[in-house]
Amino acid sequence: MKQFAIAIFGVLMIAGSARAVLPSEQLADPKLEARARAISEDLRCVVCQNQTIDDSDAELAHDLRVLLRERLRKGDSDEQAKAFIVQRYGSYVLLKPPFRMETLLLWLGPLVALIAAGGGAALYIARRKPQADAPLSAEEEMRAANLLHSGDTG
What we know:
With 154 residues, the chain is an all-alpha fold. It contains 6 helices and no strands. α2 (30-40) crosses α3 (59-73) and α3 packs antiparallel against α4.
């Protein structure tokens, strides 16, 4: 039983580190490949949104991985390669975009949505409050009294 648990743990560890980077995409130079992997950790797949380009199977993520490795092969520094991709795809391609005017919606969008949802929920609840009971008309009071008295006799 213990050996089985160790085997399962080993398989899960390997599966957890599985990446979408294909062997054909990898650079022959291990140092360049390590740099590409490090840069990829900061780049978002714009199709999958919350995955790095190395974690995504999307075709666009593949294109970004290839483009990044081409830039590194051509001699770009890490910053130059990342800047080239950001220039082409915008700040949204960064998993942690800088806080600037153009990225304000990325940073504050979730907060604005949360506040709007809270405000909408508060309005909904406020409108559902029961209104103060209006006084009964003379006819309604008489009917209520008759109903109460007719219930006493039975």
